Amino acid sequence: MESKLSDTFQFQRFPRFSKPVKKKKIHNKVKTAKINGQATTRLNLRRVIKLLNPPRSRLIKKLDKLFSDYIKKKAKGKCFKCGKISKSAGVSHYFSRKYIGGRWEKANCDWSCWGCHYFQLERDKTPGSWYYQYMIKKLGKKDFEYLIMKVQAINKFSTKEIQLMVKNFNKIWK
User: Fold this and answer.
1) Distance in angstroms (rounded) separating the CA atoms of residues 59 and 174
2) pLDDT beyond 80 at 172
3) Are 166 and 59 in contact (CB under 8 A)?
4) Per residue in 115-153, pLDDT tens?
5) Residues of 50-76 as b/e, b for ≥16 C-beta within 10 angstroms?
6) Greatest Cα-to-Cα distance within the chain, rounded to the nearest angstrom
7) HSE-up of 13 (CA within 13 Å, CB side)?
8) Phi/psi at 108 (nearest 5 deg)?
9) Are 153 and 101 within 8 A, CB to CB?
10) Which of 17, 56, 91, 138 has its CA 20 to 30 A from that of 6?
């Protein structure tokens, strides 16, 4: 059984809008063209700029990787808490990485397995805890207070400064 619309029912007509004009996609590939019979290569200007000036997030990731490898090499792959050499390990920051002033500070970082890092170290950083006592023993009271000041200070590294840190990593962190 088919249903029919009554004759009194009329469809409302909406004005037709023209379709938005699509912008041409900029391809990041090398383009070749023949000029005067010779093949020439033309690079996309945006691609060249992107290669010369990588985004800040990519630079931070690269610096994090370099610093992580440096801490691992310094610790010889051993967890500073339990002493195990584990493939599932990483850099443990006493003060979080969100504090950019202490993110790449040697005094703030140690190599630890994920078990110790997650279940023991991240849970309790209050004065009197094992991790707090370890940091005082490692740095001394004066240097630990200096680390606290450095981490809590307002720091912002420009993209150029981060680029320089990546470029001169071996000179900065010996």
Assistant:
1) 20
2) yes
3) yes
4) 888 888 888 888 888 999 999 999 999 999 999 999 999
5) eeeeeeeeebbebbeebbeebbeeebe
6) 91
7) 2
8) -85, -10
9) yes
10) 17
